[in-house]
Amino acid sequence: MTTPPFLSGKMLLAMPGMADPRFERSVTLLCVHDENGAVGIGIGQKRAGMRFRALLKQLDIDPGQAPDCAVHHGGPVEPGRGFVLHSSDWGGQDSLHVGGVCTMTGTIDVLKAIAEGRGPKQWVVALGYAGWGAGQLEEEMTRHGWFAAEGRAQILFDTPTDERWAACFKAEGIDPRLLSSETGAA
Prior knowledge:
The structure is a single chain. By secondary structure, this protein is an alpha+beta fold. It has a single domain (11-178), classed as VC0467-like (3-Layer(aba) Sandwich), CATH 3.40.1740. It has helices at residues 52-58, 108-115, 136-142, 153-158, 164-171; strands spanning 11-14, 27-34, 37-42, 46-51, 70-73, 77-86, 96-98, 102-105, 123-133, 146-149. Strands 1, 2, 3, 4, 5, 6, 7, 8, 9 and 10 form a 10-stranded mixed sheet that branches. The mean pLDDT is 90. InterPro entries: AlgH-like. One of its GO terms (cellular component) is cytosol. Belongs to the UPF0301 (AlgH) family.
């Protein structure tokens, strides 16, 4: 059996008709993908009732200069665990470069830096993540569940959250209005 190409740095787009409603029209930046499985951060849905300044206050961090922006629903796994996807102009302990798209940091030092005005220039905050065991994502992709689009920093940082799903397809040359939730077999 050959090893499939790993997809770290790709944006996974839920296909219409995906069986799991938690991922309807979702956009997930795949941060890690190797023979042991995959981890992605959802960037296509906002966390209802959660704002960034309130999150900082819950963590006993003075919000200082931080904007009161949305917090994203990163995925169903560990929904209380936070991640910051950010530009590479800032790096802290345990920061991970994600396929030339951004850097991911899951420690509190990045939140403090943002609040103090010395953090990364661009960033997105998410709670939770999506995770797949070894071979699970590859299997889901064969069942018309996911489309792997090129990871693009401009979509992550410069496109409004509710427009990211369609923007990713359009960047791939696909009109998302023409996608069908029906699959066929030849």
